[in-house]
Amino acid sequence: MNKDKIIRCITSDGGIMASAIDSTGIVFTAQEIHHTTSCGTAALGRLLTAASMMGAQLKQKNAVINLSVKGNGPLGPVVAVANSKGNVKGYVGNWDCPTEHYSNGKINVAAAVGKEGILTVMRDYGSGDPYIGQVPLVSGEIAEDITNYYATSEQIPTVCALGVLVDKNNGLVLAAGGLLIQLLPGATDEKIEKLEKNVAALEPVTTMLAKGMSVLDICKKALEGFEVEVLDEFPVSYVCGCSKEKIENAIRGLSDEEIKEIIEKEGAAKASCNFCNKKFIFTKEDLEKIISERKDKK
Ligand SMILES: [Zn+2]
Fold first, then answer.
1. Could you tell me the distance, in angstroms and rounded to a whole number, from the CA of residue 259 to the centre of ligand 1?
2. Which of 54, 163, 166, 225 could staple 205 via S-S, CB 3.0–4.6 A?
3. Strand, helix or coil at 66?
4. Cα four-point dihedral sign 242, 248, 253, 255
5. What confidence tens digit (pLDDT) does each residue in 150-208 have?
6. So what's the pLDDT on residue 189?
7. Domain 5-235 adopts which CATH fold?
């Protein structure tokens, strides 16, 4: 059922890298989990789409990338986390945020996210010493903010296009996708000019997907006039990976007194996962067992 995939291409001259993704299933799943209104679906969907492509660029097997957009709009924070396989998960602060539209009918994502705020990119290579980059938001529309992040924080000239098409009647996701093009050192002005012309003429990614174009077709269209080599192509999906064990480990991080306080006040510990909304309950007995096991070890 899930046909989401990423393709990564490079021009034969080695000057330009391009990734394209069909993230329709990922964004559909996100909407299903979080019950987001259209502006939340669009904002979260765009960030998930970007995170998946950026995660897929990580070379270390256990690496993770965390994108967070904290704007001054009513949607609250938008968070997306991807691994090096491009599998991704995310959430928004306010799933019930009302949706505004531009006069052309497009969802006004900036109004929901806010035009002022911070985009934080955290790459954790698995060594416990994450790399963190932060830039102020330039538009709140997400794609421009990613482009600006690469330009100012990493000095990589980048074109980023992200799209989420939502059914106006029922709020369901019809198509979602993205394109990330990056200039590698040594690209000549002539090539940059050619690329800029291509990009200017490019239709929205969701339009191209809706026409039946593949992710390869989209990369080739963006890199028209260049010789394109495919580096790799692989399926991606919305994956959470949370478990009762992981939550239990977090509880184990609390002191005996803190756990006893939860038992006294709440009677049990209830936790739900931000990313998949799965609920976990630790009964009084579970919690007491955690304390007594600790005493046994001492
Ligand atoms: Zn989860």
1. 22
2. 163
3. strand
4. positive
5. 999 999 999 999 999 999 999 999 999 999 999 998 788 888 899 999 999 999 999 99
6. 86
7. Hsp33 domain (3.55.30)
The residue among 295 and 282 whose pLDDT is bigger is 282
Distance, CA 239 to ligand 1 centroid (Å)? 8
Alpha carbons 44 and 4: distance in angstroms, whole number:
16
Domain spans of the chain? Answer: 5-235, 244-297
Distance 250 CA to ligand 1 centre (A): 14
Output the pLDDT for position 298: 58
Of 229, 275, 287, the closest CA to residue 51 belongs to: 275
> Contact, 287 vs 104, CB < 8 A?
no
Give the whole-angstrom CA distance, residue 289 versus residue 209.
53
Ligand 1 center–CA 275 separation, angstroms = 5
Residue 67 amino acid letter: L
Distance from the CA of 43 to the center of ligand 1, in angstroms? 20
Q: Which of 80, 122, 125, 68 is nearest to 238 (CA)?
A: 80
Length of the chain, please? 298
Q: Does domain 244-297 have CATH number 3.90.1280.10?
A: yes
CA of 272 to the centre of ligand 1 (A): 8
